[in-house]
Amino acid sequence: MYLLNKKHFLSFLISRSFLVVLTTYLVACAPTKTHTDPQMNSKSNATSHRRPIQGISESFFKKMKEVSDLLSPDYATLGYVEPDYVLAKAKLKDMELFCETSCNEYEKSHIYLYYAYIFYQEGDLQVSKDMNDRVVTFSPKIPVATELNALVLSAAIEYRLGRPQEVKPYLEKIKALSPKRYQELTSLRAVVLHYEEKYDEALKLVDISISKSGKPLNSKELYQLKLDILNKVDMGGMKAVVEEKIAELEKPNGDYLPIVKVAPSYPKQAILDNIQGFCTVEYTVLTNGKTTDLKVVECSNEIFIETSLKTAAKFVYKPKEVDGERVEVPGVRNRFIFEIKQ
Q1: 130, 160, 184 — which closes off a domain?
Q2: Which residue ranges in the chain fall short of pLDDT 50?
Q3: pLDDT at position 29
Q4: Listed residue (320, 303, 4, 256) closest to 132, CA to CA
C-alpha cells in the first residue's frame, strides 16, 4: 500500500534504503570497488544489462549511521527520545559539503534519501519529493532498489499533493525498471486510472489494494479513493456501502481497552517548587497491547515530560480487532494530571 503516511515512511526508508547501504558496505572489498547490483539478479527485475555500483566507504558509513540514530533513536538503550531533525539536517549538510569532492554517486544518493524523510516528517512534501527526485539523477550508478524507492515515494507524494496527473510518469519509470514492482503498486495505478476516467479498471485495483491493506488508516484512504471513483459512475447502492465503511473506520476506537494503567511519579523538584499541571502523551497501541511511538503533544511544564513518557510506556491495552484481526491503533492520547494534595 503506497498511499504513504508519516508513520510508515521511516520504516520504509530505513529497511529498504539504509540496509542496502549496509549490505553494499559489507560486500565491497574497497571503497571504490564496483560490483553487480543484487537487485538485477532477480528474474522479475531483469533488464537488458547488469548495473555496476560503487561501494560505501567506512567513513561515510559511520556518518550515515549517526544520522540514522538521530532519526530513529534506540528506545531499548536511551528510553524515549524525540528524533532530532535539526541535528540530522546539520550532519547531512556537512556530508553534502564533504561529498562535493570525496563521495561517489551511490553515497550522495543516500544523503538525499534521508533529507527526503526529514522534510516529509516536517510536513514539507514538495521539498521531500524534490529530494527523492535528486536521488534518481544519480542513476544508473545507484542500485535499482534505491532508485525504485525514490520513484515510489515521489509518486505517493504527488498524489498527496493533489496532483494525480503527475503520478503516471513515475509509474512508467518504475515499470521500466521492475515490472513486478509496478504490478504491486495497485493503489497508485488506480489513482492514474481514476484521473484518466477509466473507472471500472480503477475500481478493480482499489478493491485489490483494500484486500491487501491490513491497517485501518490505509483502508480509510483506499475507501475514500473508491468513493471518489464511485461518485463519477453513479453507483448509488455501492456508494452507500462504502460511505458506511468510511464512517465505521472514522468511529472512535472504543473497542480497545486499557488493561494496565499506572499513575506517574510526581517529580521531586516539582513538589519542592509547588508546581502543578498536566501532560498529554500520544502513542500507538500495538497488536500485542503495548505502546510505542510515544510523544508529548502538550505539557504545562517540561518538568512533567520524562515521568509522563515513562509511565505511558508501561501501559498495556486489550488490542483492537477489525474483522477478527488485531490491528495497531495510532493517535491514542492520555492526559496525566499533576496535583499536589494539601
Answers
A1: 184
A2: 1, 5-8, 10-36, 38-49, 216-217, 253-254
A3: 30
A4: 4
Task: Evaluate whether 328 touches 269 at the Cβ level (below 8 Å).
Answer: no
Write 41-50 long-range contacts (CB < 8 A, 24+).
44/178, 44/179, 44/180, 45/144, 45/177, 45/178, 45/179, 45/180, 45/181, 47/177
**Given this model, what pLDDT does residue 248 score?**
75
Domain match, 34 and 145 both: yes
**For residue 194, how many C-alpha atoms fall within 13 Å in the half-sphere facing its CB?**
26
Domain membership of residue 81 (yes or no) is yes
Looking at 184, 202, 231, which one is the last position of a domain?
Answer: 184
Q: Which string of b and e fits 93-117 if b means at least 16 CB within 10 Å?
A: eebeeebeeebbbbbbbbbbbbbbb
Contact indicator for 288, 177 with CB cutoff of 8 Å: no
